[in-house]
Write a structure and sequence with these properties.
The complex is a heterodimer of chains A (536) and B (575).
Chain A (H helix, E strand, L loop, with lengths): L5 E8 L5 H22 L5 E7 L7 H8 L9 E9 L2 H8 L12 H13 L6 E8 L10 H13 L3 E6 L11 H13 L1 E5 L6 H5 L9 E7 L2 E9 L6 H4 L3 E5 L5 E12 L11 E7 L2 E5 L1 H7 L6 E9 L12 E6 L4 H17 L1 E8 L6 E9 L8 E6 L24 H13 L22 H15 L8 H12 L3 H44 L1
Parallel strand pairs in A: 1-2, 1-4, 4-5, 5-6, 7-13
Antiparallel strand pairs in A: 2-3, 7-8, 8-14, 9-10, 11-12, 13-15, 14-17, 15-16, 16-17
Helix pairs in contact in A: 1-3, 3-12, 4-5, 11-14
Chain B lengths: L15 H9 L4 E9 L2 H5 L4 E3 L8 E3 L4 H19 L4 E7 L13 E9 L2 H12 L15 H15 L7 E9 L9 H16 L2 E7 L11 H7 L6 H12 L17 E7 L3 E8 L10 E4 L6 E9 L12 E6 L2 E5 L1 H8 L6 E9 L13 E5 L7 H16 L1 E8 L9 E8 L2 E2 L5 E3 L2 E7 L11 H4 L9 H13 L14 H14 L17 H6 L1 H9 L15 H12 L1
Parallel strand pairs in B: 1-4, 1-6, 6-7, 8-14
Antiparallel strand pairs in B: 2-3, 4-5, 8-9, 9-15, 12-13, 14-16, 15-20, 16-17, 17-20, 18-19
Helix pairs in contact in B: 3-4, 5-6, 12-15
Classes of the chains: A alpha/beta (536), B alpha+beta (575).
Chain lengths: 536, 575
């Protein structure tokens, strides 16, 4: 079944409480959301871009109210682009001059009403979503409880999703205007979700990330003759620029015209690289210096064709499976959601493994005809709607391990660090901690799965700029100065703490190098003298 | 490809540490001479004592084969392993104590079956054919030519290996298969000559290896002569034979796999703050071994090389030096990037090497958070300078003590297709066995982390649909615990002891095809299957667990349509 189309209204606050930096940041988040829609959204998805707190007004509700003699309703709300099929126009609208009409008064309830009105007038049968991006610092007019109730009821009736994105956390005690805060908290209680941009290192980058849906490969988890219906899903899989978006090749001629070109692979004899292209080729495998050609019949029995399966070998101590021994990408094993028995079976196994500190080991044939692999299934106890499941990691075979010997790190006395060096290393590790107090990981900074791939981010930004007709690098400037700087080294506050220790250690290292260099020089001189004496 | 350059650590004042480092390095290929004693006793003696390598415990079994048959079997295994693991190796096979002679120098009783040559299927076939009648190559009275034929055979080998004497990247080895523990028969002159020849070979940096076979004259194999030559220290006579055979076990165990010699993949640095830099070598120590497929010309079997051509719709081919524009078609509009712009997009331009962003507790490690096999870092040796090592070791030690991992961004080179990675550096403590053999080397594991783009959340799907998952009750968990206890794997179970059955089958069939044998007769032991004994022992626990749960149906696997049918369907679909 084709995925359902989505109609999205992105409402961006550019009111006077944000200031220039804040307005730039909310616009960057909005641009990222719209870019994601343009690049990765469905072909029938629609987007409407609305500014609120703008210096001018243009929206249908205001026009209707004005014609009814109430021109002061729904002011400072500017529909930059009407709801229509998503395309480069959305990006153009956000990069155009109208997007700079900042400094009006923001009313969050008004903009929510305008956005909902836009969606109500949408003739398309689609999923509806509103995203409101703001600092939520603008005071709103006195809220009419009935009116709010009507809006909320309407949103619920239409099954419209509402996302509120705040620049800073909103809590009962946060310094937001009381009416605005109460409205936000009421919406969160009834129809909306709330995200805080400051929770991620670069929230705008994160909103551009493509999230592919993981599809289950159904298996029967066999424990002897007993089978449990389960699904194996990809949990982690390396995305790249070309896996996200198809990259094509083009050629620009002298006249400046651009032509599409196809990439073709040609084969020539290795001993005659400039010779003619060989089209009649066969598959071969090296055996020493020989190449053994194989035809289809041989290919058939080169691999042993087995049916898809997942068979439990047994259980083993968890400590025997350090992470560096896993062969890359991981999977999730979940029970068949339609089978109560399967869910209970997987849940019981997960909890038993967790309690006993064990890992389940299984042999997997991923699909019919595939080679067998061994997997470690690490238990993950769920809760709050998340089912108990296993994380499945592939284990290496004997052939996959390269056992290289290395000298002991303390093989020479010269290699053993001094007490001062050890102390400095310890202090640097402490001062550069990315965890919270006492190693609390709930306050962890730089969480990899909350950070966007910078190459893909660059690609998305580049395409968005070209589609928006913005000057090169103009829109990506903030990403470069914020996010990419973060990845280049420790944050400034960390450097401020660890800086003196780092400097001292670097100094010690430099002094040693110098001393050893001098010692080497003396030895060299002595050697040269000896050679000279011998010659004489 | 980079080869390790020992001169990097061969400073003028090489100390023990530098020597240890250099000794630990391997070379890029091997030149191996097999010397097989074929004198009377080797071909007539039955009941050869062999160390049983198939068992994990150290046992010696007595076979019904003659020593020379055992030697030929070892040679056959070695050649068949080596042709796959190290196709660049050169091997020669020399028999000594033969009736006739075959060598370039007219030396008596030395028969060169094969000179130092690369391994090919033809080579293995020819050696196999020639050694089939090895029993008839000996002669009466050969036992009296003690020492002499060995001396001449060693001389022949030293000539073969001479051309590699100055090539430091070539490891030189001689394997001697004999049942003679006193090859010079107490003759001091001969003994001196043989020992002298062996010493010359050692000077040529030839690694001598002995594979003792059988019981000479019905007594235990003595260590007096060979022990002195090899410098082996064994406590008892019997343990000498066992120890020597055990030390050779890896060489003659039948496991077909590509052997990757130790080589640094990258020389780079760990940067902590603006001024502190630690030089490190980056090694790939874990990688899935794949079947190396090649394309050949169907007519001539010549190896083909692929190249990329860009062809316009008109059929015009772009000149080879012309780099095409890259582009994307988004919502019906084309966006183009020049090659330079594309490079800039791919490369986030963070400083090269490992840039430490901070440290986290080890508990931040998560098995689901890994995108590729881990690599390994070891400090770069810079001449006689030790400060690099000291700082590396300081952080290594402290991270182990404090239970911390370092989070870094890592860029291997400018314009790399991988781009920039996020990694954890995890300190690895050195682990040795009771004999001092290294089990785990000291250094840092590099665990590559996923970005938000790489992570999927299938466990959230149920919640998003509003379905409530089922959680097991105490009784069910208790039955599961009993099942876990009943199906515990052996304490020393390790997947890296198990051979990849698919790869072993592939190589065996390839070998059968190459050597003209019947590939349909190949059978491979599959160590990945569940042990019947374990399942039998856990039968009760499995049944009890199943009884505790509601019934469940496992859908029958869908049968795949035959390839031909699938092809037709696909084509129809496209039309």
């Amino acid at each position: 079944m084709a995925p359902r189309a989505e109609s999205l209204v992105v409402a961006v606050d550019v009111g006077r409480t944000l200031g220039e930096e804040g307005a730039k940041e909310v616009l960057r988040i909005a641009r990222s959301i719209v870019t994601h829609k343009v690049l990765y959204g469905g072909k029938n998805d629609s987007v409407c871009v609305v500014l609120f707190g703008a210096a001018s007004t243009r929206n249908a509700l205001h026009d209707e109210m004005a014609s009814d003699g109430q021109p002061d309703q729904y002011v400072n709300i500017l529909v930059l682009k009407d709801l229509s099929k998503v395309g480069s126009e959305d990006l153009e609208a956000l990069a155009g001059e109208e997007a700079l009409l900042w400094g009006g008064t923001s009313d969050h309830l008004d903009v929510l009403t305008v956005a909902f009105d836009v969606l109500c007038k949408d003739p398309l049968k689609s999923a509806k979503r509103i995203v409101v991006i703001s600092d939520f610092m603008g005071p709103i007019k006195e809220v009419d409880g009935d009116f709010v109730g009507a809006v909320v009821a309407g949103i619920q009736e239409k099954a419209c999703a509402v996302e509120l994105v705040s620049l800073a956390p909103i809590t009962e005690s946060s310094p937001h205007p009381p009416e605005t805060r109460d409205l936000v908290l009421h919406l969160v209680d009834t129809v909306a979700s709330l995200e805080c941009a400051s929770d991620a290192k670069d929230y705008a980058s994160l909103r551009g990330v493509k999230h592919p849906v993981s599809v289950a490969v159904k298996h029967g988890l066999a424990i002897g003759s007993f089978e449990v219906p389960v699904g194996v899903y990809k949990k982690v899989s390396k995305a790249s620029m070309s896996t996200n978006l198809k990259v094509s090749n083009f050629y620009k001629d002298e006249r400046g015209d651009v032509w599409s070109v196809k990439r073709e692979t040609e084969f020539r004899r290795r001993d005659d690289p400039d010779g003619s292209v060989v089209t009649d080729k066969a598959k071969a495998f090296p055996y020493g210096k020989d190449l053994i050609p194989v035809d289809e019949a041989v290919t058939g029995y080169l691999a042993k064709a087995e049916e898809k399966s997942l068979r439990v070998l047994g259980f083993h101590e968890r400590g025997e499976f350090p992470q560096h021994r896993f062969l890359g990408s991981s999977y999730a094993l979940l029970a068949d959601p339609k089978s109560k028995g399967a869910q209970l079976a997987v849940s019981a196994l997960v909890r038993a493994c967790e309690d006993e500190d064990q890992v389940m080991v299984a042999r997997r044939i991923a699909r019919g005809g595939a080679d067998p692999s061994l997997c470690a299934l690490v238990p993950r106890v769920g809760g709050e709607g998340i089912p108990d499941h296993f994380v499945m990691c592939t284990l290496p075979f004997r052939e996959d391990i390269r056992e290289y010997p290395f000298a002991s790190l303390n093989a020479s006395e010269k290699w053993v660090p001094s007490e001062e060096e050890l102390g400095l290393a310890g202090r640097i590790i402490g001062e550069m901690s990315l965890a919270g107090e006492d190693g609390d990981l709930s306050a962890e900074q730089l969480v990899p799965e909350r950070m966007a791939n910078p190459s893909i981010l660059n690609m998305n930004g580049f395409i968005a700029e070209k589609l928006a007709g913005a000057p090169n690098g103009n829109l990506q400037q903030a990403t470069r100065s914020n996010y990419l700087k973060t990845l280049s080294g420790p944050a400034e506050e960390i450097l401020a703490r660890a800086g003196p220790h780092l400097e001292r250690l670097a100094e010690l290292m430099h002094v040693q190098k110098k001393e050893e260099g001098e010692a080497g020089g003396v030895k060299q001189e002595a050697k040269e003298e000896r050679v000279k004496e011998e010659k004489d | 490809m980079f080869f390790y350059d020992p001169s990097v650590v061969d400073g003028t004042d090489e100390d023990d540490a530098a020597r240890a480092l250099r000794d630990a390095e391997e070379t890029s290929c091997c030149a191996t001479c097999f010397l097989i004693d074929v004198r009377k006793n080797m071909v007539s003696q039955k009941n050869t004592k062999l160390h049983d390598t198939s068992s994990t415990s150290s046992t010696t079994k007595t076979t019904t084969r003659t020593p020379v048959q055992s030697a030929v079997e070892c040679l056959d295994t070695f050649l068949k392993n080596r042709i796959i693991s190290s196709p660049n190796d050169k091997v020669s096979v020399v028999l000594y104590g033969t009736k006739d002679f075959k060598n370039d120098f007219g030396l008596d009783h030395v028969h060169v079956v094969k000179g130092l040559e690369n391994l090919t299927a033809k080579y293995i076939r020819e050696v196999g054919e020639k050694l089939r009648g090895v029993e008839h190559m000996t002669y009466d009275g050969s036992e009296n030519h003690r020492g002499l034929s060995l001396k001449l055979a060693l001389w022949t080998c030293s000539h073969m290996l001479k051309e590699y004497s100055k090539k430091t990247h070539v490891e030189k080895r001689i394997f001697i298969f004999t049942d003679d523990d006193d090859p010079c028969g107490g003759d001091p002159n001969l003994s001196k000559q043989v020992l002298g020849r062996l010493a010359d070979l050692k000077e040529l940096q030839v690694d001598l290896q002995l594979y003792p076979l059988g019981d000479p004259a019905g007594r235990e194999f003595s260590r007096d002569f060979w022990g002195e030559v090899l410098g082996e220290m064994c406590e008892t006579e019997e343990s000498f034979l066992e120890a020597m055979q055990l030390s050779q076990a890896d060489n003659f165990e039948m496991i077909r796999r590509k052997l990757n010699r130790k080589r640094r993949w990258l020389k780079t640095q760990i940067k902590i703050g603006p001024n502190l830099k630690i030089g490190v070598d980056y090694y790939v120590t874990l990688a899935r071994q794949l079947k190396a497929q090649r394309s050949v010309c169907a007519q001539t079997n010549c190896l083909l090389e692929s190249s990329t051509a860009y062809v316009a719709e008109s059929g015009e081919v772009l000149p080879k030096d012309e780099r095409p524009l890259k582009g994307w078609t988004v919502r019906g509009k084309d966006v183009h990037a020049t090659p330079l712009e594309y490079e800039h997009i791919r490369d986030p331009e963070v400083p090269l090497g490992f840039n430490v962003l901070g440290f986290k507790p080890e508990s931040a490690l998560n098995p689901a958070q890994q995108v590729k096999p881990a690599a390994f870092l070891y400090p770069t040796a810079v001449g006689g300078c030790s400060s690099n090592h000291r700082v590396f070791l300081a952080f290594h030690e402290k991270m182990l003590v404090l239970g911390q991992v370092a989070m870094c961004s890592f860029s291997s080179s400018r314009g790399s297709s991988v781009g920039m990675e996020l990694v954890y550096l995890v300190a690895q403590q050195e682990v040795k066995d009771e004999h001092g053999g290294q089990l785990e080397p000291p250094g840092f594991h590099v665990v590559a982390l996923p970005y938000a783009d790489d992570v999927r959340s299938p466990e959230e799907q149920q919640r998003k649909k509003g379905e409530l998952p089922q959680y097991a009750g105490e009784d069910q968990v208790q039955r599961a615990k009993e099942l876990v206890a009943a199906m515990k794997l052996d304490e020393d179970w390790d997947s890296t002891y198990i051979r990849n059955p698919a790869l072993q089958r592939h190589y065996q069939i390839l070998q059968a095809l190459a050597l003209g044998e019947d590939p349909t007769q190949v059978s491979v032991e599959d160590g990945t299957l569940p042990a019947e004994a374990v399942l039998e022992g856990a039968k009760g626990a499995i049944t009890a667990f199943a009884m505790e749960l509601p019934p469940m149906d496992v859908p029958a696997p869908k049968k795949r349509a035959p390839a031909a049918k699938r092809g037709t369907a696909a084509k129809k679909g496209k039309v």
